[in-house]
Write a structure and sequence with these properties.
The protein is an alpha+beta fold. The protein has four helices and 34 strands. The C terminus is likely disordered. The structure holds 2-acetamido-2-deoxy-beta-D-glucopyranose (10 copies). This is Apple domain-containing protein.
Amino acid sequence: MKTPTELTRPIHSLLIIFLLLLLYMHFQVKAQELHKGFSATPDSSSKSFQPLLTDSSNNFSLGFLRVNRSQLTLAILHLPSSEPTWFVNTTRNLEWSKNNKLLFNGSLVLSNSHEGVLWSTQSANGNTLLLHNNSNLQILDSDSVITWQSFDHPTNTLVQNQNFTSEMSLVSSNGQFEMKLGDNFIGLYSTFEQDSKQIYWKHTAMQAKAEIVQGNGPLYSQISLHGYLGTYQTENAPVDVLPFDSFQRPVTGIRRLKLESDGNLQAYYWNGMSWLLDFKAISEECELPSSCGSYGLCKPGKNCECLNNKTEYNHSSGEECFSSQTGNFCEEKEEGFWVLRRNGVDLPYKELMEFEQMDSLDACEDSCEKNCSCWGSVFNNVTGYCYKIDYPIQSLVSVGDENKIGYFKVRTVVEKKRHVGYVIGIGILVCAVLMFFAVAGFGALRIWNRRTRVNWFVHDDGISPGPYRDLGSGSFRSVELCKS
Ligand SMILES: *[C@@H]1O[C@H](CO)[C@@H](O)[C@H](O)[C@H]1NC(C)=O
Ligand SMILES: *[C@@H]1O[C@H](CO)[C@@H](O)[C@H](O)[C@H]1NC(C)=O
Ligand SMILES: *[C@@H]1O[C@H](CO)[C@@H](O)[C@H](O)[C@H]1NC(C)=O
Ligand SMILES: *[C@@H]1O[C@H](CO)[C@@H](O)[C@H](O)[C@H]1NC(C)=O
Ligand SMILES: *[C@@H]1O[C@H](CO)[C@@H](O)[C@H](O)[C@H]1NC(C)=O
Ligand SMILES: *[C@@H]1O[C@H](CO)[C@@H](O)[C@H](O)[C@H]1NC(C)=O
Ligand SMILES: *[C@@H]1O[C@H](CO)[C@@H](O)[C@H](O)[C@H]1NC(C)=O
Ligand SMILES: *[C@@H]1O[C@H](CO)[C@@H](O)[C@H](O)[C@H]1NC(C)=O
Ligand SMILES: *[C@@H]1O[C@H](CO)[C@@H](O)[C@H](O)[C@H]1NC(C)=O
Ligand SMILES: *[C@@H]1O[C@H](CO)[C@@H](O)[C@H](O)[C@H]1NC(C)=O
């Protein structure tokens, strides 16, 4: 007879192994620094985030983040909220697959087994990779000198105490909006057209506490613990204070500023449970650069509409008035556009746009029509101001004033699509006809074969794969497949 201890011994050792495994995994996840030689590949069992390096407070972690279920990015996550504070900027989307690998060989390198290096910190002599409790990821060399840090390469988010300089930019995750620091202002720009950045929000330094001195160096901005975005030229005093709602009110959690995908700049603080909104650069929905998508019309307090008043347009479910348009009309030989007009519309940030005064509506529209880099114009019939739009048309604001007249070019994509449709249609028809002849010919050949009693399909073993046998075995196989 075995004693109870003897009986449970295997369970004990199993438990110990299990605990050791847990402990091992715990330390794996909790690593606070990584050393040269480290490498990792995405684990297919990871549902959303695969941590690789976690900071001492356990609030932030660097790891592989799943985007759109099947795509991969390397990100630093605020763990309690799963909000990324930083992620790598690769030029294309990556698959969540073992072909993609992260390695630290002095540089932190994200590479693909087929395409080679996809992203790299290019910091050759790194020795240690460190994640701080403020979410800053640093690469230190053997003398503990910082050779690279994520704080110098922000993506769409700025966190407390991170310096934002005039060499940096925040870019919204869809790549359409950008925040930059000017010589005396903070600007938000839309980049709907590569060569033409349009400013849509501008905050000029108030220079209340200190003045901007020419030659005293460029400005930098920093989120303050006291609830504002401070802009500095020297550390002594800010040249500008952009207050948040919690200005001068102490909060326990960290603060962040994010350039959202709709182009708004928003600040938040963490209250221990969730992120509370603390600042919004653009408070009116219609003032956003693309509140209703391209060729959309924003009616304050109401739904979106299309400029051509298309019925059944639901912007919130992702519908567009016209398929998204890019580029300009300069490379096209033919005109390539048709014209859409609408009265009672205004540009959402026209005070930041340039204009020309013109005598008539015709003169304004004419100057846009003739210029291949112009996408449209808005003319004020009372003041004579002519605003020209040199990027694909985004959203306009509905105003009561019928004297504001919009002229918009719409690329004739539909026609091209129909041409493509025709070509495909004709292709299919030709294929069908060819197949018909082939089948008919084959049938005729078989009939002819049967009549002449020559069987071209007799195999070496003398068994002909006749139609009945083939069919029989085929259906048998499918039945078997259905069963299994
Ligand atoms: C973060 O680290 C700094 C020192 O590096 C320390 O003073 C601070 O208390 C830490 N904060 C948290 C939340 O752990
Ligand atoms: C996360 O950071 C906050 C401060 O922002 C700190 O109070 C908290 O203890 C941290 N969480 C953990 C698990 O360390
Ligand atoms: C995720 O999918 C949405 C819609 O399908 C798309 O608009 C977006 O660009 C995708 N994001 C990435 C990072 O690919
Ligand atoms: C690290 O690896 C990448 C990709 O294999 C390579 O391009 C780079 O030269 C390596 N860097 C060093 C310092 O070895
Ligand atoms: C991402 O990379 C592209 C080109 O590689 C660059 O134009 C863009 O500014 C980068 N974005 C950020 C946020 O660094
Ligand atoms: C931000 O800039 C100031 C002034 O140049 C500097 O003292 C400070 O260390 C910087 N902070 C970080 C996190 O780099
Ligand atoms: C837009 O369409 C709606 C309903 O079809 C109509 O009530 C409205 O008057 C139209 N607006 C314009 C400016 O044509
Ligand atoms: C528009 O789409 C959203 C999301 O798909 C849906 O919730 C809403 O009811 C739709 N509105 C209309 C008027 O169909
Ligand atoms: C066409 O428009 C662009 C952008 O608005 C402007 O820079 C350019 O000077 C215009 N060209 C002519 C010939 O007016
Ligand atoms: C523009 O104003 C003139 C006179 O002020 C008027 O005759 C004309 O009809 C207006 N045009 C439009 C399109 O409203």
